[in-house]
Amino acid sequence: MKITQDPPYIAAMPKVTTFAEAVEILERNQDFHEGLMEEESFPFRGETVIELDEEANYERRKVHAPLFSRRALEWYERELFDPAFDQSLDERIRERDVDGVVRANLMELSERIFLRVISRLIGLDDVDVAERVSLLQRYHVPLNDAVNVKWSTRDHEDVIREGHEAKAGFIRDFYAPSARRRERLVEEFRAGRCARSDLPTDLLTLTLLSAKPEEDHDRFAREAILYLAAGVGTSSTAITFAVEELDRWVVDHPEDVPRLTDPEFLRLASNEVLRLRPTFPALVRRAVRDTEIAATGRRVRAGERIAIDNTLINRDPEAFGSNADRFDPYRSLPAGVKPYGLAFGAGPKVCIGRPLVTAISDRSAGSEIERSMAHVLKALYAAGVGVDHDRPRVLAPTAEDRYEVFPVRFAGL
Ligand code: HEM
Questions:
Q1: Pocket test for ligand 1, best of 64, 234, 285 (most atoms within 8 A of CB)
Q2: pLDDT value at position 3?
Q3: What are 243-290's pLDDT values in tens digits?
Q4: Does the pTM of the predicted model rise above 0.85?
Q5: Nearest 5°: CA angle at 412, between 368 and 326?
Q6: Residue bearing the CA closest to ligand 1, atom 14
Q7: What is the Rg, in whole angstroms, of the alpha carbon atoms belonging to the chain?
Q8: Other CB atoms closer than 10 Å to residue 80's CB: what's the count?
Q9: Which residues' Cβ are closer than 6 Å to ligand 1?
Q10: By C-alpha distance, which of 7, 25, 86, 108 is closest to 393?
Q11: What would you measure as the largest C-alpha separation in the chain, in angstroms?
């Protein structure tokens, strides 16, 4: 856990620190909004789904919902994850060190795996060969920083300037050619020359199909940027945290070493990591009218903002037991509490990508879908991944909790 004091963005806001109050605000109280909290990130996420509330948010989420249908999830898992993993790991194997060991920065490796998958979900073409993935990664890093600029500990003007440069390159090299192809397909469909089922189910196509003629095309590019940031950085960070927590866990629980390639154990471990190690310091909400929170009697005036402390709510002993601040994949939970806590938020603004990341239980996992976290972790452990304790881990320059460098080595390659 990184935070020692409140980041400036939330320093002056009242804090929500209990699970019960957070659930009430996120799930049940209609008086809070999430969108339009700050303007500096507008060029990167303005008017995208994450900036919308109420009816507009609901309608936009409906457009995006096919990306997370059971059929789509099965396709990502069956067709995309294994090749994305193999290609990304092969790149590292080709760079084997002189001592014969395959090493990697796990943050970078995970980003390359998720960039290959999430770009297909977005509808960005030709993110396959190493050079194209490297180019997208060069744009993704500053774009992710710009989308999340409110948490950055760097000079925000620099973050925004670098974000603009990356956005121009991203639009030229990825977004524009992919969008042009899909515009032609949508035209064919509207002219009756092809069927709806001939069109791809990706974010760009769904966006173009639902767009009004007068709509701003820069918003479509921003939606793609948001999905890159929301899907790649978060998932890659969670992978590094899982490897870090499991590295410590097996020291005291050597009997679990064989379970490091067991999807059921990895699902439990993933959910526990997501709960214990949230990336964002807080979920911020603004009251749109005077309101009272029933769980605590707290009153919030219209216009006032509150910060829901992601670390504290997810370590509340009332919900997660007296050892809530420890990693324990076998934790038992009260009914109604999800194993990953509020790591994905809750209520109408809950993370739309959650079904791609992890499953709540055996039953919701189904027999064939492992979801991305358990799937990628299983492949990493099958290749013998382990923390490289000889090399330093480096945190990113932000109040978010995430690594820039997380060194690992592969014993099985
Ligand atoms: C470890 C992985 C992930 C974590 C921890 C995570 C967490 C979150 C959180 C906390 C929110 C905001 C909820 C709120 O403010 O109430 C969110 C929203 C969102 N996430 Fe995720 N997310 C993850 C992966 C993904 C993936 C893989 C995608 C897409 C492929 C995605 C897409 C989104 C979108 C579009 C939103 C905005 C939804 C809305 O405002 O209606 N996320 N996520």
A1: 234
A2: 47
A3: 999 999 999 999 999 999 999 999 999 999 999 999 889 999 999 999
A4: yes
A5: 65
A6: 345
A7: 21
A8: 18
A9: 26, 34, 49-50, 57, 61, 118, 121, 227, 230-231, 234-235, 238, 274, 280, 283, 343-345, 349, 351-353, 356-357
A10: 108
A11: 65
- Whether residue 153 is predicted with pLDDT greater than 50 in this model: the reply is yes
How many angstroms separate the CA atoms of 90 and 84, rounded?
10
Tell me how far the alpha carbon of residue 354 lies from the centroid of ligand 1, in angstroms. Answer: 7
Give the distance (Å) from ligand 1 centre to CA of residue 193.
36
Q: Ligand 1: which of 52, 349, 351, 377 to mutate, most ligand atoms within 8 Å of CB? A: 351
Determine the Cα–Cα distance for residues 28 and 104; give it in Å rounded to an integer.
44
Q: If you measure from the C-alpha of residue 374 to the centroid of ligand 1, how many angstroms do you get, rounded to a whole number?
A: 18
CA distance 84 to 34: 34
Position 75 pLDDT exceeds 50: yes
pLDDT score recorded for residue 141: 95
Q: Closest ligand 1 atom to the C-alpha of 346? A: 16
Q: Which two tokens stand for residue 306?
A: 């509150």
| Mean pLDDT across 391-407 | 94
Question: 270 is written with which tokens?
Answer: 């993933």
Per-residue pLDDT reduced to its tens digit, 99-110: 999 999 999 999
- Rounded Cα distance between 344 and 283, Å, is 10
The answer to whether residues 339 and 333 touch, using CB atoms and an 8 Å cutoff, is yes
**Whether residue 2 has pLDDT greater than 80:** no
Report the atom number in ligand 1 closest to the C-alpha of 232.
27
Helix (H) or strand (E) holding 307: strand 305-309
Helix (H) or strand (E) holding 309: strand 305-309
Output DSSP code: residue 288.
S
- The type of residue at 166 is A
The closest alpha carbon to 49, from 29, 35, 28, belongs to 35
Cα separation, 322 vs 348, whole angstroms: 30
Cα–Cα distance for residue pair 284/150, rounded to 1 Å:
11
Q: Is the pLDDT of residue 324 over 80?
A: yes
Q: Please give the average per-residue pLDDT across 231-243, as a whole number.
A: 97
Length of the chain: 413
| 407, amino acid identity | P
Determine the average pLDDT of the residues in 306-311: 95
Q: 297: CA distance to ligand 1 center in Å?
A: 29
Contact 152, 162 (CB under 8 A): no
Nearest atom within ligand 1 for CA of residue 67: 30
